[in-house]
Amino acid sequence: MDSSPTKYVYCNDLPSVAYATRILALSPVLIIDCEGRNIGGLDGALSLMCIGTEKAEYIFVFDVLALKPFKFRLMPLFCVLANSAVKKVMWDCRNDFLEILSEYNVMLTSILDLQLAEIQARTAVNKEKDFQRIQRFSWGSRAVPLRTIKQNQELFLGVHRLQGMDACIRKANLPTTGKDPQVVAMHKAVGSAIWLDRPLPPNLLAYAAHDIEMIAMLYEHFKTNSWITSANELLLVAQSMRYAYSLFYQGRVADNDVFGPCAVLPLDVLSESRGPHFQCHGCHRMQSLSCYSVRKQGKKPQARSNICRTCQIKALLKETKYPIIWVAV
Ligand SMILES: [Zn+2]
């Protein structure tokens, strides 16, 4: 188990940013992860943008607050982030993608999201059967009884449960300490606003940098185990970009929003949808008809549910009643 302290460069002025940009611009693969207050939430604010080289040989921790006065001089770094020839490896990119867009008006390109690679590997490599996909909804927090799932098979069709990074590291038996339990406990006790404190305590900076190390380790592990190969990488990038944009129309949500964060993979991410798209009244995302509950007459669809199946499942997991209204199609 590697418990040596994570080495990183703290970038809070222009010379350190220039140094970081020179190194990062030479790396064809970047590992990216952000920290902040309630990221993706109504009062979301970025604190740190952490970027590492492919194997985390270098880790740069950009202090978003300290760099605010120099925002317009960070253009060379933004060019690296927007360069589609540079792969950005992330774990659940959705909120970081939106926060970086909101703070810097920069759209990350060529994202490879390891959370999606893990889902793909369940069937492609580990040969999981469909009942195992369903079973995942009946475990852990916000579980649904298997009986309920079986009674709503059409609702759960093709829907996947997400797995967190820590769980993935544990299952992979990677020789690394997971997230610092002290910081995790602090998070729980006082909330994520601690990320906006300055100066940031060294253990928070180390925690942020260690996430980059863990994502880099997972990336290596996924490649070694053929979860990511030259054959599926392009598809994974296309899926990851759909994943990144999946919260685009919903934007920031209140903590108690029933359609807010929940460990369910949105539909129309793993596969590209064809035909007309309809807006969900829950997540506001435009999705194909297959993402909704559909009433048919014969084979012809007559009406769809006002909220997509993912949103219906979120309501179910959160034990919240939400009226389904049928909309003619
Ligand atoms: Zn929805």
TrEMBL record:
It comes from the Eukaryota. One of its GO terms (molecular function) is nucleic acid binding. PANTHER family: RIBONUCLEASE D (PTHR43040). This is Uncharacterized protein.
